[in-house]
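Lab notes, practical 5.
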Amino acid sequence: MRKLLSADFYRLGRDKAFWIGALAMLAYTVGAMLSNCHQAMEDVESGFPYALETFYFVYALLIGLLISVFTSLFLGSEYSDGTIRNKLVVGHKRSDVYLSKLFANIAFSLILLFFGLLGGLCGIISRVMESGQYDLGIPAGQCIFYGVLCGGLYPDRDALHQ
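Output from the prediction step:
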């Protein structure tokens, strides 16, 4: 199972669809956050306040599409090339092969989530730079909750080697 995982993660790092999807997610969230942050700042001046968190999770619209496209490309190319059949012939269990594919797709999803959150930080930085205020309108408890949630999603590397 460890060899299958390392092969899938190696292939994931070299896959063009992976990097195109990750950069598309980053570009989309940066563009959306900068545009929405600028709009929110104009609306605050006119008396209609927006909180930045209404725009922060705009990437959720794109993440499902990118994951479905990547999964079909990642699995479909191995199936059509006969790589999955070769892995089964060598002696790997079918469940191990498909579990390694599942873990690679979960890793891709988490990386897309990270790029979406990273792109969202551009809006926060932009808001601070434009307004000169360091009050972002996000409660500290909510920031701590999201930090703990993201910290809990980090996989335990030792568990993969057992």
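Observations recorded by the TA: The CA atoms of residues 2 and 51 lie 45 Å apart. The chain has eight helices and no strands.
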